[in-house]
Amino acid sequence: MSEAMIVDISLANVQEMLVQNSNTHPVALVFWSAQNEQSRLIVTIFEKLAEEFAGKLIVGKVNTDIEKEICEKLGNPQAPFVKMIKMGDIADEKALLQSEETYRTWVEGFLENDPSEELRMQAKAAFHNGAFDEAVELLGEAAKINVNNFRIHLDLVQMYLQTGHLDKGQDLFEKLPDEAKKSPQGKELSGLMHFSEILAGAPDIEQIQQKLAEDQNDIQALMHLAGYLMLHGHAEKSLQALLKAFMVDREFNEGAARKALLQAFDMLGAKAPELVTQYRRKFQSLMY
């Protein structure tokens, strides 16, 4: 497999990166500062993307505290900031910290088309239209074209979960390589399976809410509520319920609230980094 291409940009190599290397690969120039927390987050995100798109994308890190001459020549961008360089020109740029998913979609727009990705998109569209069998067949064709595209298998895991086949989804997920499991999509699916297990055997949401109306510290009901909220796209409210459950009894069910919080932070890190940072701090303040 190709290795990630991550380079610290300096006066010694900036010309090579901007002119020569950008003729063969898009170069994401990431402007960051050690004094800025969001800058450190953007570096982490693009290092992950460099791993994910190894062999296709170059990530160049520009430390704005040190490389002032480079920054001046490139318009003194305020970190965090990214410029996409292609064929020696600035193709696009993004200011301020965005979500990992936003950056991923942005980067993909500068990469060469992968035929397996086109079939994968067709499969997702078919699934959205209720054609599960057709979607599975398209994913199978995509896997034949590119056996290393683990997103194909992750999509199938997600389809299993969304059609109520938790066991099949878990079985397939366990067989995937660590690279797939540790990808943003893999972490999200791992989290969804975790919260599906929390909700397994739970009463419906009306009964959960009734239990909490009778006893707001009913920890089992709080865990069920957190699972329901996470699976229905209400991440922050789910985190709030988990924090409350942790405060009520951090040892409940072998530390279930703590484990669920850590799982949530992992699954939400790509899409909602600021939310994760906010609630991780709240969690840490309760730990000590």
Helix-strand string = EHEHEHEEHHHHHHHHHHHH
Main CATH class of the largest domain: Alpha Beta
Beta strand count: 5
Query: Are there runs of 5+ residues with pLDDT below 50, and where?
Result: none
Name the CATH superfamily assignment of the largest domain: Glutaredoxin
What is the number of helices?
A: 15
Read across the widest sheet, the strand sequence of neighbours is 1-3-2-4-5
Largest beta-sheet details:
5 strands, mixed
List the topology elements:
Layout: E1 5-8, H1 14-20, E2 27-32, H2 37-52, E3 58-63, H3 68-73, E4 81-86, E5 89-95, H4 100-108, H5 115-128, H6 132-145, H7 151-162, H8 166-175, H9 178-181, H10 184-199, H11 205-214, H12 219-231, H13 235-248, H14 256-268, H15 273-287
Parallel strand pairs: 1-3, 2-3
Antiparallel strand pairs: 2-4, 4-5
Helix pairs in contact: 5-6, 5-7, 6-7, 7-8, 7-10, 8-10, 10-12, 10-14, 11-12, 12-13, 13-14, 13-15, 14-15
